[in-house]
Amino acid sequence: MSQLPDFDYIRKKIPIVALARQLGLHVNGSRARCWRPEKHRNGDADPSVRFHKAMNRARCFVCDPRSWSTIDLVMCVLGCELPAAISWITERYSVPTLPKGAHVKKREEWSPRFRAGDVGTVVETLVRSGLWSTLSLAERSILPALSTFVDRDTGFVAISYRGLMQFSGVGSSATIASALRHFEQMGFLQVVRERSMGPLRRVNQYTFTFDDPEFQAMVAQVFQRQRAEIELERELRAEERKVRCRIIPPV
Prior knowledge:
CATH topology of the largest domain: DNA Primase, Chain A
CATH superfamily of the largest domain: Zinc finger, CHC2-typedomain
Shape: globular
Helix content: 40-55%
Radius of gyration: 21 Å
Number of helices: 9
Structural class: alpha+beta
Strand content: 5-15%
Order of helices and strands: HHEEEEHHHHEHHEEH
Largest sheet: 4 strands, antiparallel
Distance between the termini: 28 Å
Number of strands: 7
Strand order of the largest sheet: 1-2-3-4
CATH architecture of the largest domain: Alpha-Beta Complex
Number of domains: 2
């Protein structure tokens, strides 16, 4: 692998369902049994892996707090590091290389550190962590609406599903509920569920928990993967320059 493969092409253009089958997963429509059956009741007889074909991502709703890209899926199923995953993919798929002169962009140094109640940077926090791209379009609409109404003194927001639907533009209460459960599973949102009193529907309270240790550990893992990807790109670019220098000696 002397040339630099296009990582974005791998993530967006190689169908994740086809890649999952290459990995040996038994895919049925948009579902598959998890490759970690020991973590499931009855060996995951009711398949828990879901494929989001529009976003080209996959996620086990029992094991994974976030969804996987094609590269992530190979690393996770095979238990390998990034270079081995890229080699595995490029051996099986025709992946274009980056055009000459396309350089690795230097990313701003960043360390995942959060403060409880720091809701003014919810979107920025998730973008910088690399987790924003794993969210659905509906979830990306719900988060800004949710964070807008946080009480700055208590750190909580009390809002109904109808309110979230109105301000986010999401038209389904089931989608709202699913998104909130996902945020809980990812570890950055706490839901205080209120019991309904009389004929009135309950209104839950929410607070962002970016200081949660499990969430920080997950973000650190995602961040390290991003750094590893950058380093691999740099190494491949350096190898490519060496090859060119050997072929075309300096005048």
